[in-house]
Write a structure and sequence with these properties.
Distance between the termini: 122 Å
Structural class: mainly alpha
Shape: flat
Number of strands: 10
Strand order of the largest sheet: 3-2-7
Largest sheet: 3 strands, antiparallel
Length: about 475
C-alpha cells in the first residue's frame, strides 16, 4: 500500500523590521510595546511544519495528537527579552543600595587589594628609600581607595571612567596622553566620573568601518563641556556586549546589578515568606451553615470576632455540643533549604561562594575548598586586568611628575607584583617542610647532594625555620709547595 505524501507547509519566517536599529538605540517609554510587537509578529513561530497525509509510523495518524508549538507564550518570551536589556543607570544606582547587591559588587574589589603588591621596576632594582617614597605618594593620591571604588562602580554600572588629572586647570585633555606633559609636578590625582555624566564622541571610521580596530569605541568623552581623549582615562567595562548593543549600553558592558536584580528580588521575597508562614502555619476550620452566613453576614462577622478574641495559642477555644473543629498545619520542612537555594543562585551570578557572600556554610553545591580556590582565581583575574590597568596609568604619570624627588629617570617603568592571596596555615607549612626534608634525605643518601647543599636550601627557604643560619666559610685544603 502506498500513501500520497504532500510537501510540508513552510514555517513563517521572521522578518526584522526596517527600523530595528532605531528601535534598539532609541529605547523610550514605549520600548516595551515595541519589543512585544516585534516578538509577537516575528520571533515566535506559532506552528510547526506539518505533513498532510500519514506514514505508517507517524504520530500524526491521530488528528488529536498532531504536533503544535503554539504553546510558546510570547509574554514570557518578552519578559526574558525585557529583563535582559539595559535598565538604565538611575535604576542601577537605586538598586545598588540593597544590601546583597552592594555586598556582591564590593566584596571582590576589597578582598583583591587586601594583600596589596610589591613595587618592581624594569631594568634594575629600586632602593628601599625609593619604594617607601612611592608608597607614600600612593597613599597621598588614594590609590587603593580609587581601585576599590572604580571596580565597585564598574560592577554597579557596567562601566567606570577614571580620569587622571593635571595640575594645570587649563590643561588640554583633547590631545592624546603624553607623559612629558606631566613632568615636574604635573600629576594631580584621579577623578572618577559616573557614566551618566559623560557623552561619547566617535570618529567617523569608528562609526562606519567595522574593520576599524577601534570600531564602536569612543575616541573622546565630553564631560561638563570639556573634550577628553580616552588615553587620559582608565575605562573599566563589565561583561562585553555585541557591537549592535554598544550604543544602548553607552559603550560600556553588562553590569552585575542588571544580571542579579531579578534573582535578588526573588530571594528576598522568598525569605520574607518565612515569617509569614511561621505566623500562619496553623489553619483552624469549623463546620458552619453557609446559608445562614450568607443571610446574616453582620451576625457572622460578630461571631468570628468573638472566636478570634477567645482563640489563641494560650487561650481556650469553646465549641458547641454538636460542633466540629479541626486544624491544618503547614509543614515548614526544608523551607530553609528553599530560601538558601534562591540566595545561592544570586551568589553564582556574582561569582561568589555562599560562605563568603552570605556568611553561611555551603549547602549541597560544594565542600567549601573548591569555592575558595575558584574565588582566588577570580580575584587574581581582577588584579591582572582592571586593577593593573589603573595602577599602570597611575605610575605613568606619577614617575615623570616626581622623578627628581624619587631620584629616578622620568621614563622609568615600574609595575605591581601582586602578593599571593592564599595564606598557608601552620599545618600546611609543617606538611610542606616535612616533605621537603624527606626529599633532601633521599637525595643525600643517593649522594646527589651533600650536607652543605642541604644547609643552603634551609637558608634559602623562608618557611624552613632555619633561614637565619649562615654557611660556614670554605677552608683552603691546599698546601704550599716548597721551592
Amino acid at each position: 500500500m502506498f500513501w500520497n505524501k504532500k510537501k510540508a507547509k513552510p514555517v513563517r519566517k521572521a522578518k526584522a523590521p526596517a527600523d530595528i536599529y532605531s528601535m534598539m538605540n532609541g529605547m523610550g517609554a514605549d520600548s516595551a510595546d515595541m519589543l512585544r510587537t516585534y516578538i509577537e509578529e516575528n520571533a515566535v513561530p506559532m506552528e510547526a511544519p506539518h505533513v498532510e497525509g500519514h506514514a505508517m509510523d507517524s504520530v500524526d495518524s491521530i488528528h488529536s495528537s498532531s504536533i503544535n508549538y503554539g504553546t510558546v507564550n510570547p509574554v514570557i518570551f518578552a519578559h526574558y527579552v525585557s529583563t535582559g536589556q539595559f535598565i538604565g543607570y538611575p535604576a542601577m544606582a537605586i538598586m545598588a543600595q540593597q544590601w546583597l547587591i552592594r555586598k556582591g559588587c564590593e566584596s571582590k574589589p576589597r578582598d583583591a587589594v587586601r594583600k596589596w603588591y610589591d613595587i618592581a621596576a624594569d631594568g634594575g632594582e629600586l632602593t628601599p628609600e625609593q619604594i617607601k617614597s612611592i608608597e607614600k605618594l600612593d597613599r597621598k593620591f588614594g590609590l587603593k581607595n580609587n581601585i576599590i571604588e572604580g571596580c565597585t562602580f564598574n560592577n554597579i554600572f557596567g562601566v567606570r571612567h577614571i580620569l587622571f588629572k593635571h595640575t594645570n586647570p587649563d590643561f588640554d585633555y583633547s590631545k592624546p596622553f603624553n607623559p612629558d606633559e606631566f613632568r615636574r609636578g604635573g600629576y594631580a590625582g584621579m577623578s572618577q566620573i559616573d557614566a551618566l555624566r559623560l557623552t561619547p564622541e566617535l570618529k567617523n571610521d569608528d562609526l562606519i568601518d567595522p574593520m576599524s580596530i577601534t570600531y564602536m569605541e569612543p575616541t573622546w568623552w565630553i564631560v561638563n563641556g570639556k573634550k577628553i581623549h580616552k588615553s587620559h582615562m582608565a575605562i573599566l567595562t563589565g561583561d562585553m556586549v555585541p557591537d549592535l548593543l554598544k550604543p544602548t549600553y553607552r559603550y560600556g558592558g553588562v553590569s552585575m546589578v542588571q544580571k542579579a536584580f531579578e534573582r535578588v528580588y526573588a530571594s528576598e521575597r522568598t525569605a520574607n515568606e518565612a515569617p509569614q508562614l511561621a505566623m500562619t502555619k496553623r489553619l483552624v476550620w469549623r463546620k458552619a451553615d453557609l446559608d445562614q452566613m450568607a443571610a446574616k453576614p453582620e451576625k457572622f462577622g460578630r461571631a468570628m470576632q468573638k472566636l478570634v478574641e477567645f482563640r489563641n495559642n494560650y487561650g481556650v477555644q469553646l465549641l458547641g455540643k454538636e460542633e466540629d473543629m479541626g486544624q491544618l498545619d503547614t509543614s515548614l520542612t526544608d523551607l530553609d533549604a528553599v530560601i538558601m537555594g534562591q540566595y545561592q543562585l544570586v551568589c553564582s551570578i556574582f561569582g561568589e561562594p555562599a560562605s563568603k557572600l552570605m556568611g553561611t556554610g555551603s549547602q549541597g553545591f560544594s565542600t567549601g575548598d573548591a569555592d575558595i580556590d575558584y574565588r582566588i582565581e577570580t580575584l587574581e583575574e581582577l588584579q591582572a586586568n582592571e586593577m593593573t590597568d589603573i595602577v599602570d596609568a597611575h605610575y605613568r604619570r606619577l614617575i615623570p611628575s616626581y622623578a627628581a624627588d624619587l631620584q629616578m629617570e622620568p621614563d622609568a617603568s615600574i609595575y605591581p607584583e601582586w602578593l599571593p592571596l592564599r595564606v598557608m596555615s601552620d599545618g600546611d607549612v609543617a606538611d610542606i617542610n616535612l616533605k621537603n626534608r624527606q626529599a633532601d634525605q633521599l637525595l643525600y643518601e643517593m649522594r646527589a647532594i651533600d650536607n652543605f647543599e642541604v644547609r643552603q636550601r634551609l637558608i634559602d627557604d623562608p618557611n624552613s625555620g632555619f633561614n637565619a643560619l649562615e654557611m660556614p666559610e670554605e677552608e683552603d685544603d691546599g698546601e704550599e709547595t716548597e721551592s
